Amino acid sequence: MTEPSDRQLIEAVLEGQQEAYGRLYDRYAPLIRSVCYDATRDLNEAQDLAQDVFVRAYERLCRLRDLDRFDRWLISMARFRSREWQRSKRRDMNRIAHQVLDDEACLEVSRADETEILRLAIAELPENERMAIHVFYLQQQDTEQVRRTLGLSRSGLYRVLERARQRLQRRLARQGGTP
Description:
By secondary structure, the chain is mostly helical. The protein folds into 2 domains: about 1-105, Rna Polymerase Sigma Factor, Chain: A (Orthogonal Bundle); about 110-179, Arc Repressor Mutant, subunit A (Orthogonal Bundle), CATH 1.10.10. The chain contains 8 helices and no strands. The longest helix has 30 residues, at about 70-100. The protein is globular, with a radius of gyration of 19 Å.
C-alpha cells in the first residue's frame, strides 16, 4: 500500500480527520526539528519551536493555497519561527550582557564528540546547503522529492549537495574531525 500524498492527508484533515495531521507530523517532524535546531542549538528549544510550528500550521492549514507545497510552506514557517526565537534571544542576551559586563566573555565548547563537530559544521553551512543536507539525508527523501521541496533542478540539487559535502569535508579536516 502506498503512502498517501501530502495533498491527500491535508484534504483529510480539512474534512475533519485529525489523525491525518498526525501522519503529516510524523513525516515532517524530524526536518522541522532540524531547521529549528539550526537556530537554537538546543534540542529542547528546537522541540518546543517545532511543536509551535506544527500548531501554527494546523491552525492555518485552511489558508494553504497550494496543497502540493505543504513541505515548503512548513519549512518557511519553521524558518520564520526560528528567526523570531533568535531575535528574542538576542534581545535577552543584550540585556543580560549589559547587566553582567564583567563576567566571562564566552564559554568554550567541547569538541570531543565527532557528532557534535559534524553538527556544528552543518550549522555553519549556507542555508541552501544546510537545507539540502537536512532534507536529503535526514528526511531520506528521493532526489525528485528533495529537488521539488527545495525548488531546485536535478542538476542544481546535485551541485548544492556536492558543494555542501566539500565544504563539510574541508571544515572537518581543519578541525580534526572525520571527513
